[in-house]
From TrEMBL:
Coiled coil: none annotated. PPR repeats lie at residues 75-105, 106-136, 137-171, 238-272. This is Pentatricopeptide repeat-containing protein. One of its GO terms (biological process) is RNA modification. InterPro entries: E_motif, PPR_At4g14850-like_plant, PPR_rpt, TPR-like_helical_dom_sf. Keywords: Repeat. It comes from the Eukaryota. Pfam families: E_motif (PF20431), PPR (PF01535), PPR_1 (PF12854), PPR_2 (PF13041). The keyword Repeat applies. GO terms for molecular function: RNA binding.
Length: 457
């Protein structure tokens, strides 16, 4: 447009700024902001609103607030934008104060606050606002499903989905994609299959979002064959679908199948992204394909021109560590193009536990504690290394050090199992389940049988 000599106007700038915000193109948005100043155009409420959101997405709350305060008049869209800015930066008190000042709230006002409370883990406040909404469209219900799912409330997500349908609100594509994610995350296989039937009954096209959601759900629920069947039946396979299938194969230990799918994707002309390569590396790691994993890490930069992130390095360290190449894993960390985080060092420490390498394990824990002095997982892993080597005094010293430094164990792991369409949830050392007595009787029986069979061998 500029090359052809056409001058941009306010509508041009507001549209471009909104587009930059929507794809997180913050640097480009700043350049557009500079052009706006250069042209000396009169700013209007649409430009201001777009700028508030743009800077909020880069966590520059001060800039967003300054723009908002300088606005001569503030309509609902501007107020909603500032509420979003507060919630995105975790400033819920400020968001609530502005929320109370808005005379006529709309769907966006409420959902911004609900998502904000959900992001802070304040489910109670999110539920209160949801109940206060004068009208709840499908977007409002979708918001609550996301809030429950992201905070570990899988059963509540199922309940509110059922309540939505009962209230006469039809699910849309986003609802179904969100629910498929819930089913995959928490292992609700029966519900997942039911959603698949519901989608087919409605005659909905299995597009990129629903297709990748179905693939991910079936793979996480243990039905990799069904996941592949959905993939093969898709007429238009986008990158997200290929990624879901690669991750699915990898999670099931089918590393070679994941690599074959990656090669097929390249032949089809689909350009991989950093998530694709993460799936490939993870698949190699879980299948012990060290050479293939290292090769793909190299081609990630040289062939695909992708810059490795911390997650890729963590995966590569895990790949090498699982295979027992601990020195190579350490060299990888030392040669990283960025500072390693606790997850990268944690991958090395996990490998040290797997291969009972005390010295390197101690070194890895030191690096972890430099980054996070109260990282309980690191202490526990090193304690397990000492225990596996029979160094009980060292293991006890770890526990003493944790107490002295006020380090508490992370929340216990949680697992789900579905039996006869009923989902049962268990925590480590959990005794709250109504069938706890029977469960532990079976566990003790299996433990005795294993010991007897081991002694016979």
């Amino acid at each position: 447009m500029l090359e052809f000599g056409s001058n941009p106007n306010n509508f041009t700038f507001s549209s471009i700024l909104s587009a930059c915000a929507s794809i997180n193109a913050i640097r480009e948005g700043e350049q557009v902001h500079s052009l706006l100043v250069k042209y000396g155009l009169h700013w209007d409420i649409y430009i201001d609103t777009a700028l508030i959101i743009l800077y909020a997405k880069s966590m520059r709350l001060v800039d967003s607030h300054q723009i908002f305060e300088k606005m001569p008049s503030k309509n609902l869209a501007a107020q909603n934008s500032m509420i979003y800015a507060y919630t995105n930066c975790g400033r819920m008190e400020d968001a609530d104060a502005l929320f109370r000042e808005v005379p006529e709230k709309d769907f966006v006002t409420y959902t911004s606050m609900i998502m904000g409370y959900g992001g802070c883990g304040d489910i109670e406040s999110a539920c209160i606002l949801f109940d206060e909404m004068p009208e709840r469209n499908v977007g409002a219900w979708n918001t609550m499903i996301l809030v429950y799912s992201r905070n570990g409330y899988g059963n509540e997500a199922l309940s509110i989905f059922s309540e939505m349908l009962t209230s006469g609100i039809d699910a849309n594509e986003l609802t179904l994609a969100s629910m498929l994610s819930v089913c995959g995350k928490y292992g609700f296989s029966s519900m997942g299959r039911g959603l698949h039937s519901y989608i087919m009954k409605l005659g909905m096209k299995i597009d990129e979002y629903l297709g990748s959601g179905l693939i991910d759900m079936y793979a996480k629920c243990g039905f990799i064959e069904m996941a592949e069947q959905v993939f093969l039946q898709m007429s238009d396979k986008k990158l997200a679908s290929w990624n879901a299938m690669i991750f699915g194969f990898g999670a099931h230990g089918h590393g070679e199948a994941a690599l074959a799918k990656f090669s097929e994707m390249e032949i089809e002309g689909i350009i991989p992204n950093d998530l694709t390569l993460l799936g490939v590396l993870s698949s190699c790691s879980h299948s012990g394909l060290v050479h293939e994993g290292c090769l793909n890490f190299s081609t990630m930069v040289q062939k695909h021109k992708l810059v490795p992130k911390l997650e890729h390095y963590s995966c590569l360290v895990d790949l090498l560590g699982r295979a027992g190449h601990l020195n190579e894993a350490l060299d990888t960390i030392k040669n990283m193009s960025m500072e390693p985080d606790v997850f990268v060092w944690g991958s090395l420490l996990s490998a040290c536990r797997m291969h009972s390498n005390v010295e390197l394990g101690e070194y890895a824990l030191e690096r972890i504690l430099e980054l996070d002095a109260k990282h309980s997982g690191g202490y526990v892993l090193l304690s397990n290394i000492y225990s596996s080597m029979g160094q009980w005094d060292c293991a006890s010293q770890i526990k003493v050090a944790m107490r002295e430094k006020g380090v508490e164990k992370s929340f216990p792991g949680c697992s789900w199992i579905e039996v006869k369409k009923v989902v049962h949830r268990f925590h480590a050392s959990d005794r709250s389940h109504p069938q706890t007595h029977e469960v532990y009787e079976i566990l003790n029986f299996l433990s005795r049988e294993l010991k007897n069979n081991w002694s016979i061998c």
